[in-house]
């Protein structure tokens, strides 16, 4: 039986070496190692052997099976590698050919304006602070000196989720949060940029718009004054609208500042000469500003006898329109690629 096993071994080794493809190799695996294979048949005939011969023959058969399985696996791996090489060669890409042009997206004019504002104020030492868009009545109104029943609330009657939660009507709520976070004993120099929401009844206003608000608070001994506010806004507007932009301050009323000012800028369309856009005045209203009201300081942890400062705010949508000469605010929200891609040319 040893001679039979050796003959099977030599025959199978030669056939495995000469196998031409995976199919032929698998056939040889079945022929020699399968359930009805030649080596399996040898094991079935071991019943005729003496008890002393059985372990010897069994060990020899297992040794040959292991050797054949190793040879078949090695040959199989060689076939697979050869097949992979052929596939890679047939799928080679000629990288010297020109590629198809990928259409590039463009940055939204609102995002361009926001980034420019943030870069400017960061360079002036301001922090960029964020806050929630779903705000409480406390932060949106009460801590800004607009108690329940205050008539100024009517102008901001907005989208309430519950009796005490609403979509914020102004980013000023973030100012109150920041004052409380500072604990009433640290100076503040911050801006907040974000979406705000108000119910509007005419076609010239949107129920959602973007605002940027700034807040500066410091000890009164450091003389943070209206002059600093005016200088800050001049730098801001000249950077955004051009060096020839002029500002005009008009007394106004805001519950959270005293004194308060509306700030006009020279009309971007006519340069201050007067045109239909500015109603022949040469000026366009753009900002609200003022000295922080003592009540606001007190309600948010600051002693108004020790600290003072100024605040300002403007709509980013209008600012973007003035900056880029956009004639209709609705263009900012229609997601028309033809409109948006025009601003790539400004880079």
Structural class: alpha+beta
Question: How far is the N terminus from the C terminus?
Answer: 88 Å
Q: Which sequence of strands runs across the widest sheet?
A: 1-4-5-9-8-7-6
- Per the principal axes of the C-alpha atoms, what is the gross shape? elongated
What is the CATH superfamily of the largest domain? Answer: Bira Bifunctional Protein, Domain 2
Give start-end ranges of low-pLDDT stretches: none
Query: Would you tell me which CATH topology of the largest domain applies?
Result: BirA Bifunctional Protein, domain 2
Helix tally equals 11
Q: What CATH architecture of the largest domain do you see?
A: 2-Layer Sandwich
CATH class bucket of the largest domain: Alpha Beta
How big is the Rg?
41 Å
* Overall tally of structural domains: 2
Q: What pattern of helices and strands is seen along the backbone?
A: HHHHHEEHEHEEHEEEHEHH
Question: Roughly what percent helix?
Answer: 25-40%
Largest sheet: 7 strands, mixed
Strand content: 15-25%
Output mean pLDDT.
85
How many strands in all?
9
Protein architecture, described:
- The protein is an alpha+beta fold and 347 residues long.
- It folds into two domains: 2-90; 109-346, BirA Bifunctional Protein, domain 2 (2-Layer Sandwich).
- Strand 6 (247-254) and strand 7 (257-266) form a beta hairpin.
- Helix 2 packs antiparallel against helix 4 and helix 5 crosses helix 10 (316-324).
- The longest helix is centred in the first third of the chain and has 38 residues, at 53-90.
- The strands form two sheets. It has a seven-stranded mixed beta sheet, with helices on both faces. A two-stranded antiparallel sheet has the order 2-3.
- It is built from eleven helices and nine strands.
């Amino acid at each position: 039986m040893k001679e039979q096993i050796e003959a099977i071994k030599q025959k199978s080794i030669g056939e495995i070496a000469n196998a031409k493809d995976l199919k032929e190799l698998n056939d040889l695996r079945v022929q020699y190692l399968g359930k009805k294979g030649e080596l399996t048949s040898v094991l079935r005939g071991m019943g005729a052997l003496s008890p002393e011969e059985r372990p010897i023959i069994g060990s020899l058969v297992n040794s040959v099976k292991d050797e054949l399985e190793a040879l078949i696996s090695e040959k199989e791996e060689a076939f697979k590698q050869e097949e992979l090489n052929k596939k890679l060669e047939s799928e080679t890409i000629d990288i010297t050919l020109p590629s198809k042009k990928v259409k590039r997206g463009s940055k939204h004019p609102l995002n361009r304006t926001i980034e420019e504002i943030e870069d400017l104020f960061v360079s002036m030492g301001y922090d960029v602070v964020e806050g929630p868009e779903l705000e409480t009545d406390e932060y949106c109104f009460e801590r800004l000196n607009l108690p329940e029943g205050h008539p100024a609330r009517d102008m901001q009657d907005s989208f309430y989720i519950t009796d005490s939660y609403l979509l914020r009507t102004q980013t000023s709520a973030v100012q109150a949060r920041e004052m409380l976070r500072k604990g009433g004993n640290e100076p503040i120099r911050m801006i907040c940029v974000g979406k705000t929401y108000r119910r509007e009844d005419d076609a010239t206003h949107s129920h959602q718009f973007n605002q940027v608000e700034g807040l500066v608070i410091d000890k009164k001994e450091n003389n943070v004054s209206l002059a600093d506010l005016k200088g800050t806004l001049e730098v801001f507007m000249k950077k955004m609208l051009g060096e020839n932009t002029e500002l005009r301050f008009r007394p106004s009323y805001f519950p959270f500042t005293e004194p308060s000012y509306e700030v006009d800028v020279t009309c971007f369309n006519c340069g201050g000469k007067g045109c239909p856009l500015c109603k022949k005045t040469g000026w366009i209203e753009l900002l609200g500003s003022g000295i922080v009201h003592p009540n606001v300081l007190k309600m948010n942890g600051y002693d108004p006898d020790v600290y003072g400062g100024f605040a300002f705010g403007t709509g980013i949508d209008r600012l973007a329109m003035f900056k880029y000469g956009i004639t209709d605010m609705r263009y900012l929200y229609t997601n028309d690629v033809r409109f948006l891609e025009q601003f790539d040319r400004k880079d």
